[in-house]
Amino acid sequence: MSIGSMHRVERHQPQLTAVARAIQPTPTLVITGAVVLLMAVSQLAITSSFFSQGTLSTLTPLIGILVLVAIGQAFVISTGGIDLSLPATMTVVGAIVLKQSEGQDGGLVGALIVCAGACVVIGLVNGVLVEGLGLNSLVATLAVGQLVLGCTQLYRGAVPPVQQVPGSLGAWATADVGGISFILLASVVLAVLTTFFLHRMVVGRRLVAGSTAERAAVLSGIRAPLYRVAAYVVAALVYGVGGVLASGQTGTPDLTLGEPYLLTSVVAVVLGGAVLTGGRISPIATLMGAVFIAVLDFDLRVQGLSAGARLIAQGAVLVLGLALIHVIRHRAEISRALRRLAA
pLDDT by residue (tens digit) across 47-97? Predict the structure, then answer.
């Protein structure tokens, strides 16, 4: 090779390195590609009417609610915990909407205020138990969830006097544009706003710092434990929003309102690239993870699989997602180890 050719190669080397870095697989890129592939399979192999208005009007509200609660769960997972009180929080919100509003539009605002207060209390109790007293997040939030569920049963009664949510809530929760639910559109907006909050606002960046490097954050003057408690409160409020919308979607919320969202919310966050030991989260990637798990569940239902089979599939996706995220994050170390084995 001539000297001139060598110089040209050296000049282009930084550009090639930048291009290679830009196309490296990231969790967001991987899950987005997986969603596109799954949707193509759904249309071509599962049902030819996947993108029809009827299918979208049924599926998109479920995706929207899952996106909402998954973003809430992501806040907790960013601290290194998992919030098992999610189903109970959604369920108590549904009970409050029914009882406080008495099925009337005029009582809806008051019911929503009570819902917000209940969610703040639940989030504070979770945060204080986990971050203040140092209890294990799984044990603490499970215990809180059981307490909330028991209180919900007592509050609601065996047969609630009102069976239907206010008509305005039901109308909004079931509204759509061309088959795309308002709930999904609202959840996309929330994901964008959450991304802006975490990366552009001082409070959001401090929350991220307190979650990813708590000791360094404390040394720099950030009150990391306070921000981590706040993550539980924010999560509970988001679950509450999901519970209100799920109540409007079903029309008659019962004591199982929040059950379908516990495992699926965790799977969605993991598919979005989050690490269960804590760290940075990506609301947009979490949104795509929620879309993936919701579409997968829809496909399994269309195929006639039982609830047990769908749970097995969700668990398998969780394990595979954790393994894939580990490979993506540690691909350099894995590559070096494989080269040493091959040498």
Answer: 888 999 999 999 999 999 999 999 999 999 988 889 999 999 999 999 999
- Reported as a single tens digit per residue, the pLDDT across 296-320 is 889 888 888 888 888 888 788 878 8
CA distance 262 to 57: 23
Q: Can you tell me the distance from the alpha carbon of 5 to that of 280, in angstroms, rounded to the nearest whole number?
A: 44
Domain spans in the chain, listed from the N-terminal domain onward: 58-330
CA dihedral 154, 155, 158, 161 (to 10 degrees): 160
Q: Residue ranges of the alpha helices (H) in 43-131?
A: 53-77, 86-101, 108-127
Q: How many CA atoms lie within 13 Å of 51's alpha carbon, on the beta-carbon side?
A: 8
Q: How far apart are CA 91 and CA 262, in angstroms?
A: 12
Strand-pairing partners, residue 180, are 177
Q: Which fold has domain 58-330?
A: ABC transporter involved in vitamin B12 uptake, BtuC (1.10.3470)
- Can you give the pTM of this predicted structure? 0.86
Q: Which amino acid is at 37?
A: L
Q: Residue 172 and residue 181: Cα distance in Å, rounded? A: 9
Q: Which residues of 49-72 are buried (b: 16+ CB within 10 A; e: fewer)?
A: ebeeeebbbebbbbbbbbbbbbbb
